[in-house]
Amino acid sequence: MSLFRCPICNAPLTVEDRTYRCQTGHCYDMAKEGYTHLLPVQHKHSQNPGDDKAMVRSRRAFLTKDYYAPLRRTLEELARHHTPAKGAVLDSGCGEGYYTAAISRALQDSGIPHRLAAVDISKEAVRLTAKALHGCGESAVASVYHLPVADESIDFLLNCFSPLAIDEFRRVVKPGGHFAYVVPAAEHLWQMKEVLYDHPYPNEVKRTPYEGFRYVDVLEVRDTITLESQEDIFALFQMTPYSWKTPEEGVHRLRKLTTLTTEIAFHIHLFEKE
């Protein structure tokens, strides 16, 4: 039985001959990479929603070099600690699957039997996630605001730099289950921002409680990285929101760099379902 549910009737899905089917007759084919499409047309706000191919590929090029390894290792440890045997893990807004695949490997290496699913609204991102998982989990094009999973079915939910669909998280996380919400800390990429902007400002940092959840902890992950090529510098830039709103002068200054040392800083807000 799949962790996914039919996005039309919410019935359980089974997989037969590379096709997801529900008992009422809806079916969803699996692409050659292993993902499926569970995004009804009424939940699409554009023809190709989500991150485009250039942004997804930039993120993959940057992350696969393990510049964000400190964050990856922390998320691996959280998943190991909060996923019970035969538990269910969901990556909501999985992107290209860097953290999804890392968590899958960490749970396997720790001998924790589990089921894992990942969703993102970007077809290009989910395609790469499916390839990264190598069949060790499910992936689907879907909206995080309409998660195609059953009520109270998830033990550990990851939300890393993705939309916070708190009502859906409250619905799908089991009582006693956890979700980890990753956001940039105040000084994240500060030295890159000093290149891009004449007057950079720190990221907003706040602690927000959510009904139905209790705060367990706010973990800080911090390091300094050195990017030693223009290719890596610009890949980092393109995978951030700064690529949408930086003046041309700032982009020109960044393109002239061949090396960049910058701070990386993240906050992981860990919640438990009450």
How would you sum up this structure, described in words?
The chain contains 9 helices and 11 strands. By secondary structure, the chain is of the alpha/beta class. It has one domain: Rossmann fold (3-Layer(aba) Sandwich), CATH 3.40.50. The protein has an 8-stranded mixed beta sheet, with helices on both faces. A 3-stranded antiparallel beta sheet has the order 1-2-3, with no helix packed on it.
| Global structural class | alpha/beta
Beta content comes to: 25-35%
Classified by CATH, the class is: Alpha Beta
Per the principal axes of the C-alpha atoms, what is the gross shape?
globular
Query: The CATH topology, please?
Result: Rossmann fold
Q: What is the residue-mean pLDDT, rounded to a whole number? A: 95
Whole-angstrom Rg: 19 Å
**N/C terminus separation:** 27 Å
Largest sheet: 8 strands, mixed
Q: Note the total helix count.
A: 9
The CATH superfamily bears the name: Vaccinia Virus protein VP39
* Helicity, as a percent range: 25-40%
User: Count of DSSP E strands?
Assistant: 11
Unreliable parts: none
| Main β-sheet, spatial strand arrangement | 4-7-6-5-8-9-11-10
Q: Which architecture would the CATH scheme give at its second level?
A: 3-Layer(aba) Sandwich
| Count of distinct structural domains | 1
Pattern of helices and strands? EEEEHHEHEHEEHEHEHHHE
